[in-house]
Amino acid sequence: MTPQTLILESHGPVALIRLNRPEALNALNAQVLTELIAALAAFQTDEAVRAVVLTGSQKAFAAGADVKEMQALDFATIYKGDFLSGWAEVAGFRKPIIAAVAGFALGGGCELAMMCDMIFADTSAKFGQPEISLGIIPGMGGTQRLIRAVGKAKAMDLVLTGRMMDAEEAERAGLVARILPPESLIDEALKAAAKIASFSQPAVLMAKEAVASAAELSLNEGLHLERRLFQSLFATQDQKEGMAAFIEKRKATFTDR
Ligand code: CAA
Question: For the whole model, what pTM was predicted?
Answer without folding.
Answer: 0.98
